[in-house]
Amino acid sequence: MEIGIVGLGKMGANMTQRLIEKGHDVVAFDLSAEARESVRGVGARPASSLDDLVASLDHPRVIWVMVPAGDPTTSTIAALKDLMGSGDVVIDGGNSNYREAAPTARSLAEKGIAFVDAGTSGGIWGLREGYCLMVGGTDEAVSKCEPVFVALAPEGGYAHVGPVGAGHFVKMVHNGIEYGLMQAYAEGFEIMDRATEFDLDLHEIASIWRYGSVVRSWLLDLAVRALAPGSGFEKIEGYVVDSGEGKWTVQEALERSVPAPVISAALYRRFASREPDAFSNRLVAALRNQFGGHAVVTERGAHGDVPAPAKTVP
To answer: What tens digit of pLDDT does each residue of 152-172 get?
Structure first.
């Protein structure tokens, strides 16, 4: 089928290529001229603007928006609303907050445009492995787009999970779970890294855990790559960002009275990673020193080595 793609970043460009490889006709737009020319090389028809994109598609049109969540997505969909018409479908494949889906659908419906929220997982590996797709929308709108979903997903990796908003809700929880899984792996490997008396080969351990172990997973496959000799792991700073889904998952857990200690702790650990000299940690150290005379560390070495602690209470 014919589809328009807006956004040719690390996900959108690979999705475009996978769709073309599966026999679909793709018209693609990105603000970057270089990105547009790049997908021309794999068989897409680049559009010079959103107007050009919409004009290049036959009615009824299906356009997949794959840009960062928030204002980039909101403004893009608003612009498409002015350009598209009755019978058309807009798909939001970004990590948008599911609470925005229903208002967006109502706004587009004013012009007879349907809205589909497609939670999309697969990262940079999606081109080869396929994308897991968690799709929300009406039966009619999802059916129109289904050939694209089937082409993008591996076998068994696509489901129409519910009405508008359900796709992004499920993807939000998926990413919250991902926070917990990654944090558990990280903590376990750090414990082994500190067991210097055994001189453990962490790359080898990650590798063997992939076979027969109850903790085997795709994330563990990626840990093998990350820990491989020459991967550059030792140069990576321990600063971990979050794109919102973990935060939203914890908020939903609170509102629904669901205990979610693992996901919550993983989220807070990400916050902590950004403050190596956090005020709160310094205050805890100072208070321990004040009430118990416990030693405090006044400086660290170039590699984070901790010198002999100093006593500051007389």
So the answer is: 999 999 999 999 999 999 999
